[in-house]
Each structure stands twice: as structure tokens, then as C-alpha cells.
């Protein structure tokens, strides 16, 4: 075992303990810079959100305008397709043929297009072979519809006039009966 020598009492040790100054306590950073930094970050974030929503709304309005424009163009395309289908219809072709002086032929004969050979005995069309066939142009159809509407309006006017005349006659008869009942010479 080894023993350490203990200092003897009354004798000072040759070595004096060195004292040094304690560093002053560090000051806590103040909260003001932190609060300012957080306020700046929040302000930047809110500004970015406002700008972002504004841009998105502008884009949404632009998309909506383009959708309206696309719908209008789609409607126009469908109208044009309907006009083309109407122009290709049999009735439109028949009206155009009638305007050119062509008439339906119930006695048609076949013809070979490659060499133009006609099979059968063709007869000219006089125009009265199919008397019930008559195609109306748009102007003729509009005139016919207007005439039908006018006839219906005239019929309704006659009915209303007749109803008014009947009602006036009934009122006149009721007035005459009331006048006869109140006349003193009428009672016997």
C-alpha cells in the first residue's frame, strides 16, 4: 500500500491555490429580435398567400371565359352541322330539283354508268304522274304556317265574338225580365 503524505499542520504548503475571476454570466438574448423575425416571416407568408390566391382567381376567370367561348363555339358547330344535314336531306334535294324544273319519275329505268347503256324503255316525265307529291320550299312552308295561324286566330275571334253576343243577349233578356217584373201594370 502506498500512502500519501498528508500536509503537516502549521506548515503552509509551498503552493498557493490560484484564483481566477469567474466570467460574468452571459445575458440571455432579448425576445425582441425573435418577435420581429417571426412578424416579418408571417407578413411575407400572408403576402405570398394573397398573391397566390389572386393569381389563382385570375386563372380561374380565364378558364371560365375560355369554357364559355368553347361552349359557344360548340353550339355554333352543332348549328352548322344541323344546317349541313338539312342541306343533304332528301326533302331539300327534292325542293332544289323542283326549283330546277325536275319532277319525280315513277317509271325510272336503270342505266349502266360505265358505258351509259339504258335498260328498258324510258318515258319522259310530264309532271302529273305523281299528283300528290309536292315539296315546299322554306318560303312556301313559312307562308303556309302563317296562313294556318291566321285562320286559327280568325276562328278564335269569331268564337269570342259569338260568346260576347250570346252573353249580351242573355243580359238584355235578364234586364227585360227584371224591368217587366217591376212595372206595376204587368201584375194582373
Output the keywords:
mainly alpha, 3 domains, 0% strand, 188 residues
Question: What layout of secondary structure does this protein have?
Answer:
Blueprint: H1 32-87, H2 90-99, H3 138-182
Count of all domains: 3
SS summary, helix count: 3
* Number of DSSP E strands: 0
Which geometry do the CA atoms define? Answer: elongated
Average of the residue pLDDT scores: 84
Low-confidence stretches: none
- Biggest pleated-sheet summary: none
Q: Which class best fits the helix and strand makeup?
A: mainly alpha
Distance between the termini: 170 Å
Helix content: 55-70%
Architecture overview:
It is a single chain. This protein is mostly helical and 188 residues long. The protein folds into 3 domains: 56 residues; 33 residues, no CATH class; 43 residues. Helices cover 59% and strands 0% of the residues. The protein has 3 helices and no strands. The protein is elongated. The protein starts with 31 loop residues before the first helix and ends in a 6-residue tail after the last helix.
Provide a short characterization of the protein structure.
With about 190 residues, this protein is an all-alpha fold.
